Amino acid sequence: MSKSSIGVSRLKDYSGAIRKIKDAILKSRYTAAALANRELLSLYFSVGRYVSENTRNHQWGIAAIEIISDRLQQELPGLRGFSPSNIKNMRLFYEVWKGHFKNRQLATGDLETANFTRVGFTHHIEIISKVKKEEARLFYVEQCATDFWSVEKLKYHIKEDLFSRKGMLQNNFPKTITDNAFRTRALHSFKDELLLDFVNIEDPDEEPDERVLEHAIVNNLKKFIMALGSDFSFIGNQYRLIVDGNEFFIDLLFFNRKLQSLVAIEIKKGKFKAEYAGKMNFYLSALDELIKMPHESPSIGIILCKEKNHRIVEFSFRDTSKPMGVALYKRSAKLPAKYRHILPDAEKLKTFL
Description:
The protein is α/β, with parallel strands linked by helices. The chain contains 16 helices and seven strands. Strands 1, 2, 3, 4, 5, 6 and 7 form a seven-stranded mixed sheet that branches. Helix 14 links the parallel strand 6 and strand 7. The longest helix is centred in the N-terminal third of the chain and has 53 residues, at 3-55.
């Protein structure tokens, strides 16, 4: 064996060791970060309780929090996270969750299983300040912990009310997906409405052409994937299928890692039409036979349109064999046209400045 081949052999042997050590380092870092976050949340919860008990019963005077914050900065130069506003956030954090943590410490193991200690304080404050229902708050905490949402992504999903829309997609999954676990994952992977606020056209009342929508989506993929949900990877637009020498093109094709499924999206202007279901069924059949890998789950189709009639969708899906659903898109949360005349327009508002 030559010296060069011995060197390559040793490199291959060491690569396994390097991988194991690297994994151990990353795991250790994650554990340390998780422990640090747990301790920080425990501290904030305790401080919040102390501040709440002394401010709500009027034990402390006006501006007490501001005075305490200034003194802490003097006593501990460079201290971060104890501004007046953040101390008030600690009080809010305690007051919102104190019923959950009654008679126990925030850093205990049973709460860790509830994902609270895996979520950053900034995430917690965003949730409790913007979401009012406890069930919805718990939902967003769990999503942040399990899907590693950034604060930006959390804000987006709260804005579009993901909690209310999860599992609301009108679909044919119950009759086309036989595997119970896969069906449940699919039901919770799609939303019934997507906010496409990045689509800009001159007339806000004009309905954009399908190609305009497609190009806007492709040019704003990050925002669209955020609207679509977790674990989606973009494969391509106008994805080409050849069936018996004939060309067909799918508007958008994605892959969902959690589902291990190809996801075809067809964009339609205006209302849903019955013929859309037949075309999507054809695309999914072709994807499953020609594109899908043997280990992957069946392909899923989403028809994205402006409006739908629930009954028409129901009849259109009745005899289909491939899993698909209908989602609606909206371009903004703008005021309906019939109310716009009540408020002055932007140009008129400028004259008051």
